[in-house]
Amino acid sequence: MADQVSGENPTEKTVEKLTEKPTGVNRYALQCAIVASIVSIIFGYDTGVMSGAMVFIEEELKTNDVQIEVLTGILNLCALFGSLLAGRTSDIIGRRYTIVLASVLFMLGSILMGWGPSYPVLLTGRCTAGLGVGFALMVAPVYSAEIATASHRGLLASLPHLCISIGILLGYLVNYFFSKLPMHIGWRLMLGIAAVPSLVLAFGILKMPESPRWLILQGRLGEGKRILDLVSNSPEEARVRFQDIKIAAGIDPKCEEEVVQMENKKTHGEGVWKELILRPTPAVRRVLLTALGIHFFQHATGIEAVLLYGPKIFKRAGITAKDKLFLVTIGVGIMKTTFIFTATFLLDKVGRRKLLLTSVGGMVCALTMLGFGLTMAQNSGGKLAWALVLSIVSAYSFVAVFSIGLGPITWVYSSEVFPLKLRAQGASLGVAVNRVMNATVSMSFLSLTKAITTGGAFFMFAGVAAVAWNFFFFLMPETKGKSLEEIEALFQRDGDHKVRGENGTV
After folding, report:
1. I need a labelling partner for 415 at 20 to 30 A (CA). Which of 259, 328, 405, 450 fits?
2. Rounded average pLDDT over 299-323
């Protein structure tokens, strides 16, 4: 399939000419990506608001640290199963209806958590919302990437992660304001109000078009072509994209039929796991390694520890008042949102590779300083003002450099490197790894800090980040400005020499 794209294909030369003169982002494509990414705001809100709600849940329901770890981490374990189901589901019912399904699951989970009369009910609500998380994290970046043109795919595919950050910031703000309500009402409202945007999104997404690539893979060429005309910057660009997608889907590029009959295994994802796991080609094996690797390191470097347990971390650094803890945590949300917003404009200009290496290098430095600051603050009993300041500055710096590179690039890169037929289920496998690592960190962090101290935990994360930098340096080629169909050629053996020469990577 990829050799067809990388061969003497006239459309490839046309793509190169089209991408030499970048045009503005297509407004309709941007609107589609924004609406699809709202589901990520709801997930981000759930993450952010739980960091504050757990403080009150601990008091009212008399839960211990292990129960809190389970409550926070169970969402990600359930998201693991959701993500594995999401790939095949989106291949069968389409990207759009999969987003609707994610919204409905979020709504049900939020209602259960908002009711929350007991710990088991809360846990059930988190599990239900977790299934929605798995669906949302897989389908939103894939939908955005498949709608976008090559010149602005970084911007559109990074929107879901930007929206996660906006949601986290909203969650932190709600924590601060709702913390002033009576305890038994405050945390339930924090968790329950997410049901409202979930319901709105479930209906709103129905007005958006389906992914043109999914439609063409179903043999619905006429519908796919009409949507490409809407989301492309010119008729010529739409024609080139249409031709390339047909080639990737195994359809004769000269075919002009409105609907063509496709083999069932090509349209609903049958046989994909064999091509991905059991008998992958060398190119697919390399794609799988890089996609799973970037998802692994996104959470293995400790970002979830700061986002979920920020109030507990800053309390150990010396801040004791609840309102001040929530205010400092709001700063984390502001840094994350600001720098991810900046990254959305840099991804298509600077490129994925340079931004990623710069980001992870900064994370190594910030995590080392955070580990040092927390160690000194805890050893002094929280009495060293400079150690508290260093801890706060280092935590903010860590979130900033993560958010300008590794955070958004994980979702952009993993949504664009898989071949068309493997994309949905390949992306779902990446999300599964992502959720496993998220759950591992969120369900073990408090226990880890008891074993090796809070500072020691962040020294460990700094070591993992150093390993991640080397992984990205040697294994990840640049994908900036290339069509989704051209990217396949980067991982072909025949392209190894070219990749080394241009990108300095294997």
Report:
1. 259
2. 90
Q: How far apart are CA 483 and CA 444, in angstroms?
A: 40
3-state DSSP assignment of residue 314: helix
Tokens of 416: 């664009």
Start-to-end CA span in the chain (Å): 21
- Alpha-carbon span 130 to 40, nearest angstrom: 12
Task: Give me the half-sphere count of Cα atoms (radius 13 Å) on the Cβ side of residue 366.
Answer: 23
Nearest alpha carbon to residue 468 among 232, 241, 295, 348: 295
Token pair 């927390």 is found at 374
Helix (H, G, I), strand (E, B) or coil at 149: coil
Residue found by looking up tokens 């470097």 in the block = 301
| Per-residue model confidence as pLDDT tens digits over 353-385 | 999 999 999 999 999 999 999 999 989 887 899
Per-residue tokens: 492: 């072909």
Task: Give the C-alpha separation, 303 to 441, whole Å.
Answer: 9
- The predicted-structure confidence for 51-65, as pLDDT tens digits, reads as follows 888 888 888 888 888
SS3 readout for 222-255: HHHHHHHHHHCCCHHHHHHHHHHHHHHCCCCCCC
423: tokens are: 């994309």
Q: Tokens 């990254």 correspond to what residue?
A: 343
Claim: this prediction has a pTM higher than 0.85: no
378, two tokens? 């805890």
DSSP secondary structure string for all residues of 265-303? HHHS-TTHHIIIIIS--HHHHHHHHHHHHHHHHHHHTTH
The radius of gyration computed from the CA coordinates of the chain, to the nearest angstrom, equals 23
Q: Which two tokens stand for residue 261?
A: 């009959």
- Report how far apart, in Å, the C-alpha atoms of 179 and of each of 46, 57, 194, 324, 482 are: 16, 12, 17, 12, 48
